[in-house]
């Protein structure tokens, strides 16, 4: 948690600097006051080693904490909620969930913001908003929403699972593994967390490297990827693919790509369900399309080789069909 606290501290200092910078711009008519604020900015930058011009990589300079909003909302955080207020907050949360299903992540973000404005102490709202931020690549905001969700409810496993997804997408595998282990400790029957832990452990141990796997000459892929290569009648000749060292090297690089690992971890976590609905076909298709796009961009040679391999295969029921039970694979007309 030390790293998380350091990140939060840096974000706070950066937000203070942004606030003071706005004050400098607003004080154009008061040279003395402007100069005093500029000196304060320089002192803070020197003391905390955080610069407006060159913030740490983990910080999103475009969206610091709105300190005025935090102060103005402080009283509402301790205000008791009525039943009507809770219902209204849940209504906004449900709207956000629907927007996520429709892949309207900006609209989802606005809906979750409205829910949090009414009930700023609901861990579910922050965790859901973290998912929307993650989809928009607002990694810093997503992390901080996870931290806030955990702060409110330290036993909320989904917040740790979401944290793991974000860390893995940032190629912070050690942090992702720690988050997934905490999620699994809170929800030991969740197989998705087990698979995510295995994925992280494979990454850290180098189990994804290309190489021989027994007498079959197979390829040592993580469980989540190996299930994608199941053969079918008329499908690509997987054995010839596995026996091609150059092709296996490209495939190994692909499955070790942090973006691909993040996509798979996100899919695995989401398959466990999230607040507001189960993952549907759209999410599965979206993940597949994103993986295909990533593969096309990073390994065009692999795509071309696979296409040639598939194109050279005989059709399942053609002249070269050697399967004695091929008719059983046809749909019945009765």
Automatic annotation (TrEMBL):
<keyword id="KW-0802">TPR repeat</keyword>
<dbReference type="Pfam" id="PF00515">
    <property type="entry name" value="TPR_1"/>
</dbReference>
<dbReference type="InterPro" id="IPR011990">
    <property type="entry name" value="TPR-like_helical_dom_sf"/>
</dbReference>
<dbReference type="Pfam" id="PF16546">
    <property type="entry name" value="SGTA_dimer"/>
</dbReference>
<dbReference type="Pfam" id="PF13414">
    <property type="entry name" value="TPR_11"/>
</dbReference>
<feature type="repeat" description="TPR">
    <location>
        <begin position="89"/>
        <end position="122"/>
    </location>
</feature>
<dbReference type="GO" id="GO:0072380">
    <property type="term" value="C:TRC complex"/>
</dbReference>
<dbReference type="InterPro" id="IPR047150">
    <property type="entry name" value="SGT"/>
</dbReference>
<feature type="region of interest" description="Disordered">
    <location>
        <begin position="307"/>
        <end position="334"/>
    </location>
</feature>
<comment type="similarity">
    <text>Belongs to the SGT family.</text>
</comment>
<keyword id="KW-0677">Repeat</keyword>
<dbReference type="GO" id="GO:0006620">
    <property type="term" value="P:post-translational protein targeting to endoplasmic reticulum membrane"/>
</dbReference>
<feature type="compositionally biased region" description="Low complexity">
    <location>
        <begin position="318"/>
        <end position="334"/>
    </location>
</feature>
<feature type="repeat" description="TPR">
    <location>
        <begin position="157"/>
        <end position="190"/>
    </location>
</feature>
<dbReference type="GO" id="GO:0016020">
    <property type="term" value="C:membrane"/>
</dbReference>
<dbReference type="InterPro" id="IPR032374">
    <property type="entry name" value="SGTA_dimer"/>
</dbReference>
<protein>
    <recommendedName>
        <fullName>SGTA homodimerisation domain-containing protein</fullName>
    </recommendedName>
</protein>
<feature type="domain" description="SGTA homodimerisation">
    <location>
        <begin position="9"/>
        <end position="71"/>
    </location>
</feature>
<dbReference type="InterPro" id="IPR019734">
    <property type="entry name" value="TPR_rpt"/>
</dbReference>
<dbReference type="GO" id="GO:0060090">
    <property type="term" value="F:molecular adaptor activity"/>
</dbReference>
